[in-house]
Input
Amino acid sequence: MAGFRMTKQRRVVLEEVQKAHSHPTAGQVYELVRRRMPRISLATVYRSLEALAEQGMLRKLEMGGTQRRFDGDLYVHQHVRCVLCGRVENVEVELPPQVAVPEQKRGFEVTGCTIEYLGVCPECQADGQ
Amino acid sequence: MAGFRMTKQRRVVLEEVQKAHSHPTAGQVYELVRRRMPRISLATVYRSLEALAEQGMLRKLEMGGTQRRFDGDLYVHQHVRCVLCGRVENVEVELPPQVAVPEQKRGFEVTGCTIEYLGVCPECQADGQ
DNA sequence: TTGATTGCAAACTATTTGCAGAAAG
DNA sequence: CTTTCTGCAAATAGTTTGCAATCAA
Output
């Protein structure tokens, strides 16, 4: 449970998530990393993403949609997700305190608050026409 | 694509989601429905939930976590999700207009906004001690 | 050295699909 | 009747796990 080791694989996974300014899924990270390390396994990518998120070096996005996504940008922000293609982009939202501040709700000890906007991204708007 | 038929199976699925004041997953709905219709198949439950959501008779929750959840309560509200057990409860949140109102964001045509609180539910708090 | 990590393959979980027969309208 | 729906079984998609070999500290 203790010693986290920064292996070559984990370093590459981290770098790729950071420079992908998209919010890649594990599969997408795998494809990116594979260009530099063809022999890495998908399982290692999953385990690396998990371990890096646990270290707080990247963020695992807790949002709707089927697949999990990862974000190398640790600055606090919210997201818009395209309901058609699943693409996720950052948005700056002024969160008024009565929304943002974690508090007791229904007996839950609240630790976080996520705002997710849903919509149609520019590309899908174009495709739709 | 057109004619929706209210079959016996769909009626039971709808009733069970409505009276379960939890926010059941497809598997949970299957278990509930099976008590009244032992021969129903899981595939039918999935297809019924999908069809009923498409009719607007229940709501498919777009939120974090592994499994999809369904909500028979059509009144607008937000949710708290337990990060340990996945349980979801309703919360009333006053959404200030600058947060709630769909608008253009990053070129997206925004159609909705979800707020999800994350935390630890009372039961898991007790277990943790 | 020694516990943590990797690659591989197999296992799992949640969900979807093809199809022939059954039922709704 | 005709079209939609159901049950079953098989197929997918995404993610996780067991294990022996390998590597970081």
